Every structure is written in C-alpha cells, then in structure tokens.
Amino acid sequence: MANPLALRLAGLVLLCMVVGAPIAQAAITCGQVTTSLGPCINYVKTGGALPPACCAGIKALRAAAKTKADTQAACKCIKSAVSSISGINYGIAAGLPGKCGVSIPYKISPSTDCSTVKY
C-alpha cells in the first residue's frame, strides 16, 4: 500500500507543474498592428508610391512576431483591420509584404484562417 503522504505530495507537485506551466500568449497587440500598418492604408486602397513608413512598419511588426502565437495574433489583427476598412484592394494588400522585402506565412485577406498560420 502506498504511503498517503507520498501520494498527496506527488499530487501537489503535479498540480504545481500543471498550474505553473507557461501558457502561450501573444505579445503582439492589435494596437501595435494598427500603429505599424497605419501608414499603409492609403497605399492598399489606391496603390501608387509605397510609403517608406509603411515598409518600416511591416518590418517592425514581422520582427516583433517571435512566436507562433505572435504571428497568429498579428494575422488576426490584420484580418480584422482589412475587413473593417472599406475600399481595400486585396490584391495590393496581399502583395505588400513582398514589396517591402518581408516574408509572412499568410496572405493578407479577410478569408485567411489565422488559426492555421505557422511561425
């Protein structure tokens, strides 16, 4: 028969491991995404000259996405933003990261499934 004190101690240790385990949370906020991509709004509506501040924002956002959770959070924020702004040319929006020399693992589109995005 097992020692009841040993079983309680083992249970307590297991509980502490489960409760103390880190939970994947995104460090990127929609506020950061909005601020970073704000200079891109007119460009993705009308095209024309690509503002340097737009590419700087995209590069900063990509650099800030250090985990899968960050990348998915950025994707969700971008998807929400482009869905709420009228007049977005989704062809221009989808090509924006490439024009700035940045690779992102998803297409900027309201139909993107951000939960499947990998880092």
UniProtKB/TrEMBL annotation:
It comes from the Eukaryota. This is Uncharacterized protein. The lineage of its organism: Eukaryota, Viridiplantae, Streptophyta, Embryophyta, Tracheophyta.
